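Q: What would this chain look like folded?
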Amino acid sequence: MASDTPVHDKVDPQVLKTALILVVGALAVVFDTTIVSVALHQLATSLDVSVSTIQWVSTGYMLALGVTVPLSTWALSRFGGKRVWMFALTVFLVGSVGSSLAWSAGSLIGWRVVQGLGGGLMLPVMTTLIMQAAGGRALGRTTTWVALPALLGPILGPLVGGAIITDLSWRFMFWVNVPFCLVGLLLAHRYLAEDSPDASVTPPRLDVRGLALLAPGIAAVILGLSNAGSADGFGHPDVIAPLAAGVAFLVAFTVYALRRRDPLVDIRLLAARSVGSSSSVLFLSGFSLFGAMLLLPLYYQEVRGASALAAGLMLVPQGVGTLLSRQIAGPLTDRIGARSIAVVGFLIVAAATVPFSFVDATSNGWLLALWLLVRGVGLGAVTMPVMTASYVGLDRAQIAHSSVLTRTAQQIGGSFGTAVLAVVLEQSISGAGTGAVVSGFHMAFWWATGFSLVATALCVWLPGRHQVRNAAAAAALAAPRPTPAGGGAGPVVGAP
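A: My prediction, written as structure tokens:
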């Protein structure tokens, strides 16, 4: 019996091949981020420095990540996807080995910056190459592969990190990345086709002025938000100064980019409904995802007295729920669009966060695990359609710019959400006693619920059924016809 799924709703096998090759390397970045996040206190003790100093292990990495993300658009057009991917993965590998051999807090922070430089290129390059291979067809199903590293990280990262901190040296946290990097390099070298730019075409010049405005702007904003999360609020000079400088740089880049025909990142794409709406929603989803990921392990450790490993185990149901909804949300987005799925997803996230606004040290652990499972289902239903929406109706050249815009929006949103919830929690537990701590978590979880509801309202701007189906049909018509058997080479994996 014939399938009811239209041809342009099916993922091309070459797209799956490209996705699998790139996802292997990307897992190193995601696991590294989640593993290190549960080990900062242990690192401070082992290296005999303060928590405020060791926090730069994460802050330095995030700053390097933000600086290099905008470079991906130029690097892809200048060197080709395969070369950029393998270079970035090699840089991340070198940073991982260096971090594992670090002899002091300063050297560890420096090697983490090296890791961030590689990771900042890897994530948008991976997304761009997979989406370009998809050619505008079956974007929802394709996005399930793009988002796979981000979904697996919250499940396995805290578990691996907790186990290492409990039973092994902290240095093993960085050796975990090495197998992923080596296998990823081998697969990319062997199976990604050469896609070097045409030598007869003048290579694009790096927009140095744009980079000098955008990179420090992103870095300064992330630094200010990071300082806000570790301080008592947003009113300190070390928060206000970098935030003000970062916003000024970003405004200057906006004015500059609007006047330039080929800017480093084409922010004019934000005027497109697909990119503008998804960037806005991803900004607020950063609040719901990253902000709550700060609160949940802290609740289990500080209120319930769980170890780092136990806290990681308790968060597994949320990751499982995300993986389960991934299988449904991606294909469903290809059929009915992103809007309605994302609305339902955020409402589920908000509803499943509310119970944590009433918990204490004696709350039923199995019931909380059930709510985390439900919350994970909602997160998966948000991530898939919103990421898909950002590429609806875009041509090949615009995909790289959309990857940078949406990745930056989510990164800054995550930093902002984490800072706000950290400040809310810190100010709410300023009283004495266990009761103040519990009530502080209640207040912070209420804020996280509110962020999810605000994001729900923004979802009405996302592309609906007609926009998604029309764009997919247009892409299918524009796609090259398959080559007859024996008539030549097939599609090239990773070709631009």
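The CA atoms of residues 404 and 476 lie 25 Å apart.
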